[in-house]
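Consider the record:
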Amino acid sequence: MSDSLILHKRLLGMEPTDISKDDILIHYLNKARSNILGYCNVATLPVEYDHVMVDYAVYLYKNRDSVGLINKQEGERSAAYETGIPINIRLALPLPKIKVGTD
């Protein structure tokens, strides 16, 4: 089991030995990695950013029922959702690379 998956489980309050949701958690880790690589415009992410990827995977997992929502209101309660990668995650990532040309 990868260190990222173990950390992901711990942050979600799961036991590291519980494998019942491993496929779903791995899906969110892969989705987080893909989104971050696209945002940073790089092919690989340095290992020192793995914890940021796990934080983003936890965010995606916890907010999986809110995908596509910008605002939600129920009675007098309302909530606004961030679109894209949350600012606290973006600030922890390297600056996006700008590619010039068609290569």
Remarks:
- Residues 22-40 form the longest helix (19 residues).
- Residues 3-92 form one domain.
